[in-house]
Write a structure and sequence with these properties.
heterodimer; A: 650 residues; alpha/beta; Rossmann fold; B: 357 residues; two-stranded antiparallel ribbon; 72% helix
């Protein structure tokens, strides 16, 4: 299509740190173009085939875009708002902003216009980059309200033909403008590569905003390079990985693990065609490094289980025979017990018959390094994938540390810990049980919020807000948020999130809110997983027409009661969930019940469902609940639902 | 279980259309080709001459007929006659001192010319009527060959094939004859595999599905029907000359009668219409099943002392043979190739039931 010819754009010098690493991401890009210029840097699926950019071409793209952005008025210290799914052009534009000493500020694509302003508070973003027409419309709406962004760039030209609006420019046009400028001004490319320093901001991310407005978290190049250096030293990353860029661009994981590690460690970044085709494209890519949230691993497990339940007799029997054996063997391995010859032989056979084909099906047959993080992972899921032979490991980190703090190490993986601190990361526990971290990747402070910065960062130590402890062998155990520790009326301390996660380990439960702070006993509001429970119901010939109807089926209530009863077994007497209600809908970020990263907003839930919660404690068997709903077009309505309240059998 | 698909990606659309995109299929195809090449050195002479060689030749013939029946959807009950024309033409030319390579091509061309004339009937008639027209061709060609001593050498005559060489290698002994047949087989197979990916193959497919519709979307049905008969008959003529030179070595009219045509049609249908692999499967079943069943029944009667009369002894294999063909077609009406495809799919989606989960 419009692939720019790989003109000779060699840059000989780039800013280098004292330890020899490139000081910025743009410097790393220039280094890659000079040292391994013909290696494939980016691969993007477009209409079914993979389009490739070498490092040399990538540098040319980035520098052209940078020249174009500068001409359009992007200055050092400015933010470039970026909204959209993963696209090579979006990554190029992010790096281009970096070259100018400016920084990208990615926003989740599903943020509605009303909230969008919250994500444009810092860095005076007058230019925004949207992936497609949908996002451009949103930005236009925003411009009508606030006058910003003045310039809107877009990547996908589909549907954009009729937009005559001033200030809407396609990325291709911008690149052409930049290439023109580059051709006219010799030496500009070298100057652009050397303009930014390690002290410039690489990316501005936002905290999830569980409580109040999201805070701006600026990661400097120094932090990113330092963090990835630590991770490489700990062998969590290696050079020349095949990466799969499907995570939301506004999540720290995507910027660090995909773009940061990709550029610094000369990987190949593979970008799926669309979010909907990501699972299919994953198989074509077969990445060597794969990061997914625990939820995504759970979904993958559900997918395999649903598929196996449907499979033919022989195949299902083989799976039912080998899979439990694999999990048992993995348990033994983790415990460090000796493994007999017979078990090895069976494992080898299982690899040929079951594990290998499943890994191939998932596209993870080459995934040497597989990670999960962000929240706790279910034991079942964890052991399943490790049993398959995917060396899944948990990592621990927060946006403030570039997500690179601690991770499990192969050979000493323990289920309940998140592993050891990475090389170069210091960790200690404060007197109140809070985890404190200090490393090169920790930010200096929040954006324009000295008060919050002073609270969170003391003498270079980051107060993570997580409660935890360090085991004698150096493994870090994370219990939950310090702020989330609450007490029942009897004074028992507990973290609702901890219990919720355990309930959510069941594939039938998608979301759950455990209530009990200041109450006599614990109760729960459960949102079933429509897909998993729907399939479960179909196999039992239970008819249903909607989520709401399915959730109130007696069999489904029994199913959920069983799940909670199972979790209760591991809970102390006073912290068992006694009653629950199946909600008629899933918690939705658009209703404010969860954040975009799927964390519960307890305040909102307790307020919206106050009547429901009262009913849970009043001992009623049924409750009529008037649900306020927001339709896709923004109008609001009220829907009356009768929900059944169940006791959990003990 | 055997198929691995992770990590297969294409940067060009051409790559997506390759014959065997999956490594396992590719390796299997290479392995079978190497085995076919090494066969004269690893199998016994008896098996080479009486099993492998006829299998290769009949498979090639089935491929040629399959091109017409499966590829273009035109039935042909006179394919034996097409082969006869090629065989007689090339043998007469070889006897006149023309090199075998040229004689083989000439035989193909003459078959193509005659076949196209009868194929012209397909422009007007379809289905059963076309079957009748091609059946008429079978009888007319048989009649002409027998009645013209210049061609057949007399009513009961057989014509010896003189010693010939192919591309400088004399065709004497088992190995050279096998390799000549294999060479022709490989060329025809490659043509058949690739023709489906060409505009020619797609035009034929359109004609096969519905000739009116094909004409509506701009396919010249007149041209493509004649071309289909031309190409198919050309292959038939070449295979006829290979059959005469490499296998029979002496030809007589009764070798090319209706039963040859019928058995070729059976090979195509049992193997699978339109399938390259099916032609090989079909030829194997039709050629070897009678022999194996005969041996099996003989084994039963001699080893277990089953008291079967000699009448039954000679008819039982034929009955079983018929039952077997019917059985296979009942099991899978789309032929042996479809049975293979089902098995392949079973392993392709292993350990799931469907490709999509």
């Amino acid at each position: 299509m419009n692939a720019v010819a790989p003109k000779d754009l060699t840059v000989e010098h780039w800013p280098v740190r004292e330890d020899g690493l490139p000081a910025t991401l743009v410097a790393a890009l220039a280094r890659n173009a000079a040292e391994s210029g013909s290696r494939i840097a980016f691969r993007e699926r477009e209409h079914g085939i993979w389009r490739e950019w070498s490092w040399r071409q990538a540098l040319h793209e980035v520098i052209s875009l940078a020249a174009g952005l500068e001409a359009r008025g992007l200055k050092a210290g400015d933010a470039l708002t970026v909204v959209g799914d993963n696209r090579a052009s979006i990554y190029f534009a992010m790096l281009a902003a970096n070259a100018l000493g400016a920084f990208p500020s990615p926003v989740y694509p599903d943020v509605p216009v009303d909230e969008f302003g919250n994500y444009m508070r810092f860095g005076d973003p007058r230019i925004a980059l949207a992936e497609d027409q949908e996002q451009v419309d949103k930005l236009l709406d925003l411009r009508d309200r606030t006058g910003r962004p003045e310039t809107i760039l877009f990547d996908d030209p589909r549907g954009m033909g009729a937009y005559g609006d001033k200030g809407i420019v396609s990325i291709a046009e911008l690149r052409a403008e930049g290439a023109q400028i580059l051709a006219e001004r010799t030496g500009l490319a070298a100057e652009l590569v050397n303009r930014a320093t390690g002290e410039n901001i690489a990316v501005l991310l936002y905290s999830s905003g569980t409580t109040g407005l999201p805070k701006g978290i600026p990661l400097k190049h120094r932090n990113v390079v330092g963090g990835i250096k630590n991770a490489e030293a700990g062998q969590y990353f290696q050079r020349h990985e095949e990466l799969f860029a499907y995570l939301p661009t506004a999540w720290v994981g995507d910027f660090i693990f995909t773009l940061g590690a990709g550029v610094l460690l000369v990987a190949t970044i593979n970008i799926p065609e669309r979010q909907e085709t990501a699972l299919h494209d994953l198989r074509e890519v077969a990445p060597t490094f794969y990061l997914a949230a625990p939820r995504a691993w759970d979904n993958m497990l559900t997918r395999v289980q649903v598929g196996m339940a449907d499979s033919t007799n022989l195949k299902r029997r083989l799976f039912d025979y080998f899979m439990p054996k694999a999990i048992e063997l993995e348990r033994k391995r983790l415990a460090g017990e000796p493994i007999g010859l017979g078990e090895r032989l069976r494992d080898w056979l299982g690899e040929i018959l079951v594990y290998g084909p499943i890994k191939d099906f998932l596209g993870l047959s080459r995934a040497e390094r597989a990670f999960t993080g962000g929240e706790a992972m279910g034991e079942e899921t964890f052991l399943f994938f490790r049993g398959l032979g995917i060396k899944l490991k948990q990592f621990y980190g927060q946006t403030e540390t570039c997500a690179l703090s601690a991770a499990q190490v192969e050979g000493s993986v323990k289920l309940h810990t998140v592993g050891k601190a990475m090389p170069g990361v210091e960790v200690k526990i404060a007197d109140d049980g809070e985890i404190l971290l200090r490393s090169a990747s920790v930010i200096d402070g929040y954006a324009d919020d000295a008060e919050a910065s002073a609270k969170a960062i003391v003498d270079g130590w980051l107060r993570t807000g997580d409660a935890g402890h360090i085991e004698p062998d150096g493994h870090l155990v994370v219990l939950g948020r310090v702020s989330e520790v609450v007490r029942t009326a009897q004074g028992e301390r507990f973290i609702p999130n901890f219990i919720e996660n355990r309930i959510k380990f069941s594939s039938f439960v998608r979301n759950v809110a455990v209530i009990g702070a200041g109450r006599e006993e614990l109760t729960a509001i459960v949102c079933i997983d429509y897909e998993a429970v729907g399939h479960w119901a179909e196999r039992r010939s239970i008819t249903y027409g909607s989520y709401a109807e399915l959730s109130q089926k007696p069999q489904v209530l029994d199913l959920v009661a069983g799940v909670i009863a199972h979790v209760n077994q591991a809970q102390p007497e006073g912290l068992r969930v006694r009653r629950f209600v199946n909600l008629h809908k899933d918690f939705d970020a658009d209703d404010g019940e969860i954040t975009r990263t799927r964390k519960l907003r307890r305040g909102v839930i307790e307020e919206s469902y106050a009547k429901l919660i009262e009913a849970l404690y009043s001992g009623e068997a049924r409750v009529t609940f008037d649900a306020a709903i927001t339709y896709e077009d923004g109008t609001r309505g009220v829907l009356s639902r009768e929900l059944e309240i169940r006791e959990v059998p003990s | 279980m055997f198929y691995r698909r992770a990590g297969i990606r294409h940067t060009r659309y051409q790559d997506e259309r390759q014959l065997w995109p999956l490594p396992f299929d590719r390796r299997l195809a290479i392995l079978i080709f190497l085995l076919a090449l090494a066969a004269p050195f690893i199998v016994d002479r008896l098996y080479l001459v009486s099993y492998l060689l006829p299998w290769i030749i009949w498979s090639t013939a089935a491929l040629g007929l399959n091109f017409l029946m499966g590829g273009a959807g035109q039935i042909h009950l006179g394919y034996g006659a097409v082969m006869a024309i090629g065989a007689y033409c090339s043998v007469h030319m070889v006897r006149a001192g023309v090199p075998f390579e040229i004689a083989m091509i000439a035989g193909g061309l003459l078959s193509a010319a005659v076949g196209m004339i009868f194929g012209a009937a397909a422009l007007r008639v379809k289905g059963l009527y076309l079957a009748m027209a091609t059946l008429a061709m079978q009888y007319i060609v048989d009649f002409v060959i027998i009645q013209f001593p210049a061609i057949s050498g007399g009513t009961q005559a057989t014509i010896q094939v003189p010693r010939v060489s192919f591309l400088g290698v004399p065709i004497v002994g088992d190995r050279p004859t096998y390799y000549v047949a294999l060479f022709v087989c490989v060329v025809v197979t490659l043509f058949m595999l690739n023709v489906r990916r060409s505009s020619f193959g797609r035009a034929l497919a359109a004609v096969r599905e519905k000739d009116y519709a094909a004409a509506v979307i701009g396919v010249n049905t007149f041209r493509y029907k004649l071309l289909a008969f031309w190409v198919s008959s050309f292959i038939g003529g070449v295979v006829g000359s290979v059959l005469a030179v490499c296998y029979y070595r002496a030809i007589s009219p009764d070798q090319f009668h209706l039963d040859l045509s019928i058995s070729l049609v059976a090979m195509v249908i049992v193997g699978g219409l339109g399938s390259v692999l099916g032609s090989f499967f079909g030829a194997a079943l039709i050629l070897f099943a009678p022999i194996l069943l005969n041996q099996f029944v003989g084994f039963l009667s001699s080893e277990f002392g089953l008291a079967i009369t000699s009448d039954l002894r000679s008819h039982l294999p034929l009955m079983l043979y018929g039952a077997m063909i019917v059985g296979f077609l009942l099991w899978e009406p789309l032929g042996l190739a479809k049975i293979y495809a089902n098995m392949r799919n079973y392993f392709l989606v292993w350990p799931f039931r469907h490709a999509r989960q």
